[in-house]
Amino acid sequence: xxxxxxxxxxxxxxxxxxxxxxxxxxxxxxxxxxxxxxxxxxxxxxxxxxxxxxxxxxxxxxxxxxxxxxxxxxxxxxxxxxxxxxxxxxxxxxxxxxxxxxxxxxxxxxxxxxxxxxxxxxxxxxxxxxxxxxxxxxxxxxxxxxxxxxxxxxxxxxxxxxxxxxxxxxxxxxxxxxxxxxxxxxxxxxxxxxxxxxxxxxxxxxxxxxxxxxxxxxxxxxxxxxxxxxxxxxxxxxxxxxxxxxxxxxxxxxxxxxxxxxxxxxxxxxxxxxxxxxxxxxxxx
Length: 285
Known about the structure:
The chain is mostly helical. The chain has helices at about 15-40, 60-65, 70-100, 105-120, 120-135, 140-165, 170-175, 180-210, 215-220, 225-235, 240-270, 270-285. It is a multi-pass membrane protein.
């Protein structure tokens, strides 16, 4: 006699429905905010009605000219690129030392690197800004780059250290046995293996730098404001219905820029997959 199996309908638990309901409410709330800002950026006047009185693209051109967004975007890109380059040049060798060497106080050093990443930027931003102004660096691009390096370099170190640990040290030993020096091992052997991790850390630092507000705001000024700081200054300095549309247009430009960076980072450079690939290569060896 053939055994028969009864298929029972799978019923979700109340906690599961609660989680999905919360996620749906959050999604609707977030989508509503984004739609409101986008519609407002194209609106002529929008006060107490459900929809603006008319749509136009003049708000974007007016915001671009009024707030000198060309210069602001240039400063933002320049600061972000400098921070990424310096963070990688400093962070990757430091991560290599932490991954390959054991020394007294290593855990303390790792904790110190972890603090700027975990702590709110404002807690160390004010003393840091005081130091910058005392040395005459306030409101300069130099100060903006330096303060952004404080959380970015530890971020690269913490990102690259586990990545380097997944690389088989036998590769370096074999290269040294063949007569390669430390610099040659690092540049010719490790560098090609570290390129995916460096790209991942660099893109994440780029997105983090563009979106960092507190530290940049404390030391920036005319000619050194990034896009996120320029939005805040425009929002607090201007008033009236027309100014709100200009700020919304700036916000849309900023959000679109961040979304493009995030899509590139998550689509083409996935740190989890990269580490997994290195681990598989190590197991094959």
